[in-house]
Amino acid sequence: MALNCGIVGLPNVGKSTIFSAITSTFAEAANYPFCTIEPNVGIVAVKDERMSKIAKIVGPEKVIPAIMEFVDIAGLVKGASKGEGLGNQFLGHIRQVSAIVHVVRCFEDTDIIHVHGKIDPLSDIETINLELALADLDAVEKRLQNIQKFLKSQDKNSVAKTKISIPVLEKLKEELGKGIPARAVNFDQASIESIDDLHLITMKKVLYACNVDEEALVKENEFVKIVRGYAAKEGAEVITISGKIESEIAVLPSEEEKKEFMEGVGIAESGLDKLTRAAYRMTGLRTYFTAGVKEVRAWTFLEGSKAPQAAGVIHSDFEKGFIRAEVYHCEDLFNLGTEQKVKEAGKLKVEGKEYVVKDGDVMHFRFNV
Predict the structure, then answer these.
(1) What is the rounded CA–CA span in Å between residue 272 and residue 243?
(2) I need a surface site. Which of 111, 212, 307, 349 has the fewest CB within 10 A?
(3) pLDDT in tens, 40-93
(4) Which CATH class is domain 4-48+67-141+176-282?
(5) What percent of the chain has pLDDT over 90?
(6) CA–centroid distance for 110 within its chain
(7) Which CATH code, of 1.10.3080.10, 3.40.50.300, 3.40.50.1970, 3.10.20.30, is assigned to 304-367?
């Protein structure tokens, strides 16, 4: 399972530079708007120290990490919701992703033109968020205009869902018209599910990525503080990342050289690792492990999944024929040193279909198809 994050922002904020660096995949970066038209897709390994520790104990032939998918979506501009700057095409790409990484320019550089002529993170964020809200408003209004068609459906479940959606849509029309994102409106789960087929952009979770210069990586500048203040109001996470520094890290051939470089600029970890880990958490993804001499592997599951669903991540037959799961937590392995000692200490449990899988579990499934 690999959910994806769309990287969005105004033109020339550094989206494509960051995308290219963190995915080691070329995405054209130029000093003019719309250098990205079709979305670029990159797969990134999720760095997890727990997997490295498990591998050190087990000694497998190979190690396979979890992955995260990033989609680089072209820069949006004011009026995108009305089609400005190829807006409709770009907004369509955003609807298809699971969550959003909003890159905000938080650095000064006279050589890189800002689309609005000045560095103003709050204005940049509000421009993007307003366009996304207006795009969702258009989708909501169209659904309300066609609501009678849905109420005449022969499918009773569809009609029931439509009836639930009517007050939800009316509320959204009011709030989106004010520029308030759908995720900020207090709905219960049934209400959210009644409109899930609209794929509202502003219902998606957002991570704000402040693109900064080298100095601000060590000591946050005022631009970053402004973004943090804005994000706090909507409960969103903020990370700092330097597209310039990440580009330099990306071309280094070895992990040792990358570590030395980061130490030289005063950072403990790369922006890639921060961004990937934050995006992974934001999309509700968690990790369990399988561990053996052939391989140690990280498997991605949605938080709250029960054992059969987690087993289905490996193969659908595992879920269909699920019998039981043998489970222990990786921390028990780290504390006791071997799987045998985990068993002797009674830390390995046999769990059934109702077991809710925990982040960091090490699992072995029994199934019969």
Answers:
(1) 10
(2) 111
(3) 778 888 889 999 999 999 999 999 998 888 888 765 555 544 544 444 555 777
(4) alpha beta
(5) 53
(6) 31
(7) 3.10.20.30
